[in-house]
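Human: Here is a favour to ask of a fellow structure person. Comparing notes only helps if you start from a blank page. I am asking you to supply a protein in sequence and structure-token form. Write it directly below this note and I will take it from there.

Assistant:
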Amino acid sequence: MTPSRKLMGVVGGLGAAATGAAATALTMATRQRRLHRDPYEDEPLGQLPPDRVSTVAADDGVPLYVEEIDPADGGAADVTLIGVHGIAMSVPSWHFQRRDLAALTLPRVRQVYYDHRGHGQSGPVTAETATLEQLASDLHSVIRAVAPDGPIVLMGHSVGGMTIMALAEEQPELFAERVRGVSLIATAAGEVGTRGLPKRVLSKYSPVSWGVGGIGGIAEWQPEIIEFVRAASGQLTRRAVRRLAFGGDPGESVVVFLLELLDVTPVRELVKFIGTVDGHDRYAALAGLKHAEVQVIGGDADLILPFSHCERIADELPDAQLVRVSGSGHVPQLEHPEIVNSYLIDLLQLACDTDDKSGGKLGGRVGLRDEALRGLLRRWFPS
């Protein structure tokens, strides 16, 4: 590990790496959370319209639902960001990222989000195709169809991060030639079954066993019963979501939003992925990311995939940026979107090798990050 390149951002109220507008944003965000129990009660969660919707055919013909978001100012995009969601999630789970990153001009970002097979509005999955290898192939199909050229940054949450690792294993030339940056959020490169909640707990709270490699118990054999329980006992499920997915007090609106996301995908689809995630071991595949700028973001209160998984990935990638989000659970992109987005801005600018106004290269990126964040401040905290 080389301290000059690896940055350990311990962020709760203020990040160790946050300066200027970034520090202001994090301070104000923390202050707002203390003053208002539900800071997103007026947020149109999951209701942002895309600029384009399309269907991409996977290699076996399964339709994959895709949304695209252009830069808000209408300018030409400098980079395409592709979001790869986790198990039981779907396109709307990237709500805060698609909202804020569209406003960037340094660089301008075109965003692409899609639903995994068996999820959201994409086609069905079978027991034979519920593999990380197939999900990686699906991601490659999306790239070829809607981002056939130009620089790419990949952002994966939980199983989405594992999918990116599988793609790096299967298509190393893509990462050597076009993938400029990778953000791995609350994910693991292996040993999923050895760290995190035991299967007996996941079985009890099976409706939210969406981030790890085992639902266990009754969910494996009788998913229709779990569907009935999920529909009949919303209060219990809400408590389970709050307990397992979040680290602190995220506000009722975000909890309800996540619950709605989890309700979209039937459990009978989710259990098909148990085996492939249990067997996930791609520490060696991480070498395929060596050509890209990499950041690893995780919450130190993640019960699903503990932060030690992020640390292990960072150990394998000594040039990666490791970000520890203090008090966050398994969905930091929903629980602490201001923090996650500020680091995504860093990654996007590094990936684009953004010039400053004087013609300098990366040496000016802190100022650029501050300039970009000032625009986001106006969105996050309107006067």
